[in-house]
Amino acid sequence: MYGHFLDLTEEKQSGRVGIQAFLRNRNLLVQLVERYRHQMGTANQKEFINRIKMALGKPLAASRDTTDLFSSEKSAESRSILERIKNRNAAERKKLLEILFEAAGPINLQVVSCDDISAVTGAITALVRAKDPEWGDQKSVVAWAHPLVERLNLPAVLSEQNVPLFVTGSKSTADEDLRQQVIDAYIGITSADFCMADTATLVMRTRPGQARSVSLVPAIHIAVIKVDQIIADLKELYALLKWDPHERREGLTNCLTFISGPSKTADIEATMVHGAHGPREVHLFVVTA
Amino acid sequence: MAEARKAIKNQVLQRALADLQNRFGRGTAECYRRLPEGPDLRLKAHEIRMKTIENLDVVLETLAANIQKNGGHVFFAKDSRAAVDYCLEVARRHQVRQVVKGKSMVSEEIDLNAALMDAGIEVSETDLGEYIIQLAGDTPSHIIAPAIHKTRNDVGSLFAAKLDIPYEDDPPKLTWIARKALRQKFLAADMGTSGCNIACAETGHITTVSNEGNIRMSTTLPKVHMAFMGMERVAARLEDHDILLRLLCRGAAAQNMATYVSYIGGPRQADQVDGPQEFHLVILDNGRSRILADAEFREMLCCIRCAACLNVCPVYAKIGGHSYGYAYTGPVGAVVTPLLVGINRAKDLCLGETLCGACQEACAVNIDLPRMLLALRAKLAEGDPAWGVKPADRKEKLLWQAWSWMIRKRAVYDFVLRLAALVQKLMPQRDGMIRRLPPPVNGWTQGRDLRPLAKESFILRWRKGF
After folding, report:
1. Residues B432 and B374 both lie in one domain
2. Contact B257 A53 (CB under 8 A)
3. Does residue B145 belong to the interface with chain A, where contact is any CB pair within 8 Å?
4. Pick from B335, B369, B387: which residue ends a domain?
5. What is the pTM of this model?
6. Angle, helices B410-423/B394-406, rounded to nearest 10 degrees
7. Average pLDDT of span B296-304
8. Looking at the domain assignment, is residue B74 inside a domain?
9. If contacts are CB pairs under 8 Å, which of residues 353-382 in chain B contact chain A?
10. Which ranges of B166-255 would DSSP assign to H, the alpha helix?
11. B58 touches chain A (CB under 8 A)
12. How many domains does chain B have?
């Protein structure tokens, strides 16, 4: 402690103290402002919540038992949903795939089922060749760092067409560069966590290497999933996220996204137009092997 | 009143409104029927909403705690001033110069755009309909379809004038022109704002729903995301959220699922490569706790703003959204606006509805809107110091009192009837209807014609044995 003071004296002697003390004080000031802001926030929240309690005629001090409000144990329904998902056989999966095809049609989502991953690679190669970039004349593709996407062997097939591939994998690329790569790309390739068959909805959590913008900013979005990632509906998804021990550990993450087909609008004379702000085309490949 | 008259004479608007009601009104009803649980899921949803509302203190504290745990900031704003000030302060701290805005009714309610622009910040609405409205310097006329009153030619001329491009009136091409213009805004913005359709307290997420992808853009690309929610827009559990989200998509656009649904629970985490660095959620009271305190109107807080009631309302179908004069229009606006801004001030809204009940049938959460419209009218007739309501029209009340006295006196009633039968011959008539009554009852014929009295009263004919 005294050493600290001694140091300070030395600093003073060397003339550096002005800047350093200023910096230290500034940090202190920032901290104080933060703490003040936090305290104001807490007081503010308390006042707000008390107003609600008063409106509801509740005593301000009381805190209630919330077990009936937030279920702490699976209901019989959740349990049977989890059982159903776990015991789903090949025939049932095939049925779900059919439902997915049916739901995809009206929302303009292109679904292709492929026996193996090399067929997906072939189809993607064809898409890369056939489609033109929307915002410039340079073709480039951006993709998630994801085991299934890696199996597509994209670097090899894209380099044959001289199309650069950027993977949103590591932190080694500066965020700003990555952002620019996503903006420049005309195709974004992702996988998904699940696909809900009855609404043809891709479900994606946010993870390192799996940038949110890949499924959003490029004009064409391609997603690749395995057939066993298809679930029936929102009820099944919520049961998994809430009660499945493995899924629940990760939870919804800070951003869970549902995507059902390409972006669209009907804001001008109620005419349906695809390609509002998000991708104008979405292709979903389901690997059945 | 003047706005309504103008709307009724506007042929383009009349066609657009009829078309909207034909497609969405019927489509939504069909969607409810096809629900696996059947249309009665709306009743279940009402129960869920009421339970949440009655425990709103606990539910909101849980939501806030979970979001804070994930590194998000939560601000509780007691009124629009507080909400706007908070947003401006965050904008100042980050030296924000450009804001992209996802559609949000709360931001209309608190008039966020004006405040941001006053602070020298450029604000871009990014929902296509809202963008058109903003370029035209207009206000939205429908919760879900804000530019319903504009034709393709209107939009074409507007884009030609404002974006300096050749005239174009093909809706897909117009859409892609806006897509291009707004892409630049998304990429340049330092702050994105959004509303919140339904938050989920137990997981600590807000949910945003859109078809265009503009909300995802606004909440993914800028470095700060500022979300606004009315304090009632929350579900306690995922199981509740499931039912409400499905009903919301059906009520809003007769869809089983919107194109994009995002669950946002905090800023970008340290190991992630994109997403905003800061996430702020502003939870707004602005008069809602007063609605909560009144058992008669508490039900109104169940509303999830899907706008299904607009798409079936016969009054909205004729006068459109602008005639309501406030952010919330249609049957929901007719109840919620008087409660938020003052019952006397917005009395025309609740007096103008027909009480036909179509809104309740279309409501995703089965809110008894007709009951509350009547309750508001009763307050206007009798006055209510608790809500600061002055009786709206003493003359009308006196007339009804006189009527009530008269019909209980047989002789007086018969005499008045006979007198009226004579006097009515002097009234101007057309097609067998009386066009105008003299003062003090002239108000009655201001908006309607009156059927003349029969030559003989029923009781007289009964006595004669028909």
Report:
1. no
2. no
3. yes
4. B387
5. 0.90
6. 120
7. 98
8. yes
9. none
10. 171-188, 214-220, 238-253
11. yes
12. 3
